[in-house]
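Sanity check

After download, print the first record. It should look like this:
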Amino acid sequence: MILNVVADARYLREKARADYLDAERGLFERWGPTAGRNLTDDDRRLLAVQGKAVGWKRLTKIAHIATAQTIRRWHRKLIGITRAKSGGKPQTSPVVEALVVKLAVENSYGNDSWGRRRIAGALLALGHDLDAGTVRNILRRHGIPPAPNRGRGRDNDLQMAVETLADIAIDFAQTVVIDAGRICRLYILLAIHIQTREAVLVGITEHPTEAWMLQCARNLTMAEVGFLQLTKAASIQMDHDAIFTAHFRKTLADAGLDVRFTPRRQPWKNGHIERFIQTLKNLVLHKFIFLGENAVREAISIGIRHYNQERPHQSLDNRPPKPPSGSAPDLSKPIIRIDRLDGAIHHYVRAA
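Expected structure tokens:
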């Protein structure tokens, strides 16, 4: 028992040291050798939080950008201070502030890190209406850096707003699996209803032959159960990939759909499905090494169900496309975390 406690303490010390050095390395990569003269307050908060976790005495041996004494002063000034208790916007309760930090820390997986808007959406589902700016300020106070890739180099919705959008968009994702000792690539056909953002898995195969594509078209247009019939879609768009054969397009057209192509070499023109595929990769495909097609199918099905029923969407006022029916969350109930795919996806609800 004592050995386990000692080992855990040593692990935490080494982890804190590695986290601090990673933070310094990121700042040197951004600013170069002049990093110490170009730090923002957010950078100083980050170093202060990581430095405190290391311990001020041990920090003197590894700090390079600034001395341990300077970093400790930053901690007192930028994190240790309290806000005024009167005037201005009401102070966020410590319970809600702790919840913001919890959501940010527990959901920091690479490109799937939760940013301020994603956290605000999760809070809304739990009965706390915080704007993204408040979430950002809380994260800053606690020295939590922004989520990676939060900024958008191209605003797909804005560029497509001047055009007439199709009802449905389709495209392929790909993933590599190990099946019976061999490495193979699977092709995953996905569809999304642009207005509601509801998404479905159309099919998965190692060999997307024309016969397989025709079967996918029939499944999409099947009376009463096909996705295109359920959504009452009148049009569908896709890119110029040769995999969308003439027979595939004809099957869709024969079902009464207006089949459209996006411009060549302009994937942002099909931005909704492209963004969904990236989300699915971050949620599921990049987190596992799959052993066979069935494992991929099960993981994607769980990921899409989370996407449709639980994940807040900024374009839908932080509501999921198909939220489960029920009353507003009871703020007196405790918050519980539901793990999907063995903890790869987190969802938070109020206890029943």
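If your output differs, re-run the checksum step. Summary of this record's structure: Confidence is low (pLDDT under 50) at residues 149-162.
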